[in-house]
Structures are given as structure tokens and as C-alpha cells.
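User: Hello, can you help with two protein structures?

Assistant: Certainly.
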Amino acid sequence: MQFTFVFESAEGQNLSYLLCFIPCPVWKKEDNEIINLHPENPHFRIGDIKALIHLEALEDCKNLCLIIHRVGHASNEDLENILSELDALGISYEIINL
């Protein structure tokens, strides 16, 4: 799996980010790698969303659409950890499965 996070934006900004596992988790925006989270570990860790939020100044974004792509190296455990972190951060989300 891999995931696209589309944060709600009142200003019409492109707040879409791809979390892909190549094989370690990497945040991308518009095909540009913006964070290689932890090259030594191929799994999502709690705090990986927070790292993106701080880097991209997304602290005010409290709603997003999470698109799950069924291709890629992420596991169901990675998805469970993503949802746990979103809940802990108080971010509301809608899930779309592709």
C-alpha cells in the first residue's frame, strides 16, 4: 500500500502529500521527496505525520482525505499506525480505497 493525504485548505493550496514506502517511508509532494523519514526502518512510526505537519506548517489543518492505494510496500500494521496517529493528533479523516 501507499497513501495520499489531502489536507483541507480554505485557500485553495495544493496540500496533497504521498506517503510511499520505497522501501522506507518517504513523504512526497508533486513528485518531489520532502522527507525520508527513517531510512533504517521500512515501517511507519508514530510521529511520521507530525514530522510532515511541522515541516509543511500544517498545524491548522484538522481535516483530511486519506486515499489508500493498494499498491506499494506498506502493511496493514502501517495503516493501523497511521490511523492511530491521526486520531491522537485530533485530525478528522475520510478514507477512500482505490
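That covers the first. Now for the second protein you mentioned:
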Amino acid sequence: MSKDTINNVQCPACDSNAIYRDGLVMAGKQRYLCLMCGMQFTNGHRTRVKKRPQCVACGNIMHLYKDEQTTVRFRCSRYPDRRTYTKVPKA
């Protein structure tokens, strides 16, 4: 990995570019450690959700459960008591 590639990587939590290469994950991807907030991450796709839907059964906010190719699946924050889920298509 060249020096300019590591300069383009930013922490997904705090957007800092003060990062350290921290080995590899089991799949072989590069793992990084943020020197500002201490978060470990891989440089890849991460879904950021601006507005989460409400559960139709109880009205609570739903949590991101699964990020699929064409949809994002949310499930009720009261899981496993409530097993309600919603699929939202990606924009």
C-alpha cells in the first residue's frame, strides 16, 4: 500500500485522517486504528442512515439490521420481543 493511499483513508466515526495501519482482518482486508478516537475499522462500504423508520407495531425507532445490495433492512429496537422488520430500497 502506497503512502498516498493511506492519506486518503478517514475514520468513519470522527472523520480524522490520523490513522495507523493495524494489521489485517481474517478476510485479508487492511485494518486501521484511528489515533484520535481509538476506533478500529476497515476502509470499505459503511451505510450511514440519516432517518430511521418507526416500527409499525409499537412506534419505537428501528435499528439498522442488514445492509443488502439493493435494500437496507431495519428491525424493531424491542427485538426479540417484537420481530417487526422493514425493508427500505437504496437510493
